[in-house]
From TrEMBL:
Annotated ranges, domain ABC transmembrane type-1: 56-240
InterPro entries in alphabetical order: MetI-like, MetI-like_sf
Membrane-traversing stretches: 12-31, 43-61, 67-87, 94-118, 124-145, 222-244
Originating species: Pseudobutyrivibrio xylanivorans DSM 14809
UniProtKB keywords: Cell membrane, Membrane, Transmembrane, Transmembrane helix, Transport
Protein name: NitT/TauT family transport system permease protein
Length: 254
């Protein structure tokens, strides 16, 4: 897992970032219109201006908390439902229908439907949950089904307590599947949650600020908020990866 992560970190080079920033700057100079494409310099200036505004941090906190709550619920229910599906084929068949529906239905359809039932302030919680739950559930279940049956049989023969089986057999086997699922679902949930806010327009959210920037043709601010969303997603994924690595080290007794 660590080797895969290190490879992914090396895929983006500084020279490549600088190259595309130059292309961006040249294209904005060619178009000569901040409405069509703001230059990187103006976007940075807009971002620096936002950093000193209290409502900027309030909007980030508003959106982050709700998306985080949705992800926590998805992780808990995904793990519980995967465990139930692993122990019961009937439950697995029963839950497969809503999971398939969630996977197949477009996000926009869910956003519009959910707006009928719940307030817009909580829309991003539910949408981020819907995006993460099927991925978490499916991957954890796949990890459980892929476990070594001989190892499990040996644990039953020697009557190893459930707590020790969870710590030394189940969790180490499932963690790589969960890590891949959570990394994917985290990114998806941030995108879908903010998309939901753009449609629902809850007051004080990042989605509302993005919509206002678009309405007033404030392209530099629109790009600035987009950068904020990307940074939030990256920081959250890095923090999550750090937590998983610490958990694995603790389980392995390092």
């Amino acid at each position: 897992m660590n080797s895969t992560t290190s490879k992914n970190k090396k895929t983006i080079r500084l020279w490549a970032v600088i190259f595309w920033l130059i292309i961006w700057q040249l294209l904005s100079m060619y178009l000569d219109s901040d409405i069509l494409l703001a230059s990187p310099i103006k976007v940075v200036k807009s971002l620096c201006g936002l950093l000193g505004v209290i409502s900027f941090w309030q909007s980030i906190l508003f959106t982050f908390i709700r998306i985080f709550i949705g992800l926590i619920i998805a992780n808990i229910l995904g793990a519980v439902f995967a465990a139930l599906s692993y122990t019961s084929i009937r439950f697995r068949e029963f839950i497969s229908v809503p999971v398939a529906v969630i996977k197949s239905t477009p996000v926009a359809s869910f956003i519009i439907l959910v707006l009928i039932w719940i307030p817009s302030r909580n829309l991003s919680v539910f949408i981020s949950f819907l995006m993460a739950f099927p991925v978490i559930y499916t991957n954890i279940l796949q990890g459980l089904l892929s476990m070594d049956e001989k190892m499990l049989e040996m644990a039953r023969v020697f009557k190893i307590p459930l707590r020790r089986r969870l710590r030394f057999i189940y969790i180490p086997e499932v963690i790589p599947f969960y890590h891949a699922a959570a990394t994917l679902s985290n990114a998806m949930s941030f995108k879908a949650g903010i998309a939901a806010e753009i449609i629902g327009l809850p007051q004080g959210s990042i989605g509302e600020r993005l919509y206002e920037a678009k309405i007033y043709l404030n392209t530099p601010e629109l790009f600035a908020w987009t950068i904020v969303i990307i940074v939030l997603s990256i920081v959250f994924n890095r923090a999550f990866a750090y937590f998983i690595n610490r958990l694995m080290n603790r389980i392995e007794g390092r």
